[in-house]
Amino acid sequence: VWLDGFHRAFLRLEHAARAASVLQLGGAVGTLAALGPRGPRVAGAMAAALKLSLPDIPWHASRDRVVDVGAALGLVCGALGKLARDVSLMAQTEVAEVSEGNPPGEGGSSTLPHKQNPVSCAVALQAAHRAPGLVATLLSAMPQEHERGLGGWQAEWETLPELFRITAGSLQRMARLLETLQVDASRMRADLDATGGLALAEAVSMALARTLGKAQAHAHVERASRKAVDDGAAFVSVLRADADIVNALGAELDALLEPESYLGSSDAFIDAVLARRETDERRRSV
Amino acid sequence: VWLDGFHRAFLRLEHAARAASVLQLGGAVGTLAALGPRGPRVAGAMAAALKLSLPDIPWHASRDRVVDVGAALGLVCGALGKLARDVSLMAQTEVAEVSEGNPPGEGGSSTLPHKQNPVSCAVALQAAHRAPGLVATLLSAMPQEHERGLGGWQAEWETLPELFRITAGSLQRMARLLETLQVDASRMRADLDATGGLALAEAVSMALARTLGKAQAHAHVERASRKAVDDGAAFVSVLRADADIVNALGAELDALLEPESYLGSSDAFIDAVLARRETDERRRSV
Amino acid sequence: VWLDGFHRAFLRLEHAARAASVLQLGGAVGTLAALGPRGPRVAGAMAAALKLSLPDIPWHASRDRVVDVGAALGLVCGALGKLARDVSLMAQTEVAEVSEGNPPGEGGSSTLPHKQNPVSCAVALQAAHRAPGLVATLLSAMPQEHERGLGGWQAEWETLPELFRITAGSLQRMARLLETLQVDASRMRADLDATGGLALAEAVSMALARTLGKAQAHAHVERASRKAVDDGAAFVSVLRADADIVNALGAELDALLEPESYLGSSDAFIDAVLARRETDERRRSV
Amino acid sequence: VWLDGFHRAFLRLEHAARAASVLQLGGAVGTLAALGPRGPRVAGAMAAALKLSLPDIPWHASRDRVVDVGAALGLVCGALGKLARDVSLMAQTEVAEVSEGNPPGEGGSSTLPHKQNPVSCAVALQAAHRAPGLVATLLSAMPQEHERGLGGWQAEWETLPELFRITAGSLQRMARLLETLQVDASRMRADLDATGGLALAEAVSMALARTLGKAQAHAHVERASRKAVDDGAAFVSVLRADADIVNALGAELDALLEPESYLGSSDAFIDAVLARRETDERRRSV
Questions:
Q1: Phi, psi (deg, nearest 5) at residue B251
Q2: Of A100, B285, C9, D137, which cross-links C75 as Cys (Cβ 3.0–4.6 Å)?
């Protein structure tokens, strides 16, 4: 999921950056009049020298391409922010399924020595917090006056570089995070088991439906789920105390409550995302 | 310039809308586990039935495609806002080069009967004012939690439709405006003439440079320009009082001060924009 | 902390709303000229009839008071969003220290019956996500033209009511939440104990400092903390295995690791917040 | 109008800055536990030493006071942006009622020597464009986690200083502008006269109403206004050709068409704004 969202945002940025690499040469009022009939030829030569596309018309006050780069930077910050949000939630002391794996001396807390602050997530979340306002500034400056904006144009000068800066910072931190991320699989498993199999209620319900019918199956499982929650009992114990369920499922019940047996199409999804990434990378390197 | 900017923004919107027309079907946690091995086949059939693309992986909490549609709507509002800004500036009582040409009863002022308010521009500028904040909301909601966001997802529910609404309103108004716009060419010409040819100082300077050299030419024209501004005199009169200029340019001077003779590459630019529009329209209608 | 932040934001809103309850009556161009010398008297009577303040000067294009109301609504949404953020974090399945205590049928999940979604928090977080963009719209519309803005003024028409709506929704939900919130004190205690007393490392360090000196005390506690984290051991066991610590603290150690004994000035802070609230409520009811 | 709006925004900023000058001292988790029973006394002494107010409770994750300062900076930028918008509109070549009066070498255009760019307005409008997005960032970061935000807090670090910087720049430029602003009263009068008295149609209508009744008066004036606009004739000539109007008003007509005679309560309004400013300044200097 993280790669899928990030990959798409990154392609958007690449596309927007390429589309915005366009010569702006218009002379005093955008007509190239001072160059006489040689205007287009001069513009063409200048674009070639700068490796920029040649626009159909000077665009000094048509800021869509510049703003689109900003919006794409915002999308990248948002996609990285999603990754950082998830990691920071899983890194909470009470969850502890992952930690950033920072080098010693980074992210520690002097007064609370057991705390390992997810400082890279903080950088990415900070960027995701700031990008929206900066993109809004670029968008709000689009209705620029005549051939040269007054104030709107100038509002881009600090804003677009700042968007690049925070995106770069977020990228650099999240790239490192993915290399150092510590995943505690046993803790993940323990968190799954903590609800005594409740997370797999759907699997049980689906299997039951084959013999009891869908409505009966759902009623049985819902009753068992509520009982487990209300009594603080393990879901599996409640299920085993239900004769109808035991009769219908028998030994299959234990297998149904194994998370590994209920991954659905996850592998197919993961393969598809990785394949897309590889294909696109190959195309880019051509 | 208006068409160039708008056309590009509109293509962006079309592209973003197509890219976002993607099936979202993931079941309880995004694995399609309840469908067992038939998951991908069911998803494929559902996408086909709904005429949506099939994604590589469920994307409930990867909002980039949705946000990108919002950003593209913002670009359209901004491009239309630029048009509206220009028209409203030209429609000022003191400029009066264009008016919206509204049907009777629309845009009038009861207390100031000579005023014709540019009400369509107000609609488009209002949309351009509101879009940035709405796009920022979508962007800021991207870092959604795990497989289902809490609050961020819900923040899109009112925001995206509102962006569509204000974009549609702006489009409808600006489409009508371009059909009814009254252009007062004689007033435009009078406004150009009001500076006694100062707007063409560059043309004179370029012509002078052929005989006097660039530096001398610029110095002569700058001196004449300042004198015209300071004395409130017509630029042409000041030029004619400068023997060097008269010697160098002779009868050419009058022609140089005709705006029509100093349009540069405007026609080529306009043709290029129109041709692009036509090509793209043809491609879209295929 | 929640009450402190909310109370202040709410007072800000009250103040801004009162300051914005000001008559706007200026006639065609803001001079009240059509009323002749009676202008101020008419304005005074109208303000009295409407229970509004009389402004020093018509303010049709000076939007600060209106925008300030919007900013105050944003602050209220933000303060409530902080409450919702904290509750939603504590309501996570893996933390489970609180739940919203919604009436039956609200917040449930059909496929995951053990899940109780914090739906009220979702409403407040959605409002906190949306308010910033709406406030930005109001702020960006402030530079309005002459005596009547074109587009900027109109941008307020939908935006300010929407801010009121989402603030009201957030307030209503958070008010109910605080009435129904289920706090699981034993789970809170268990989460505290889960780190084997690490959260109280500071208390131990402070007590040790009295005999070992500050530097020595800190070194001992830091070493013990790291060992506890690295070995997955209970902090208290590691401490008890350190002869220096046992010698210095003796029986006091157990008491030091009781969270109840390390609340600092919490009670004084809470009393101060409640007293402020009461005083302000009394003043408002006068 | 400019002073009225700015003065209010500036007082808001002063008030918000004072309200935010509050000690933050909470220790590791906001309880001051490490200070034992001396916590409040230490906090009190520290606040006194730093000339800060003592809060009821530590506020590390309650950002309303900080955000409120940002919102007030946004209001100041907006109020100055309104001034800049008006000046830039009046400084247009076709209106030319004011110019910035910049020192030589500032705001000039090399290719268009008669142009004097309103560069100070550009600075203030740029600030007014950027402030809304920055304020939105601060607002969106309010729902911070527990006792220390992750990402939201960090998002303030660059944003608030940037708001101070752009506000300071806008203030400095607008302060200078008001000292150097060149007002061309004769051009203002000419622009008023350009509509042949149409701007005073209301005055004529009011005077006519005394003899013809309100409805008749309005009908006469509206007819004359439309005729003047449609024929491009001077309003005064059309009025003089209407026997009813001449009979009713006689020699009074010319006086009615003098703008100076139709200023309404302007002077009273101006006096009230200046008096308010003076009173507040006196109070501040105490």
A1: -70, -15
A2: C9
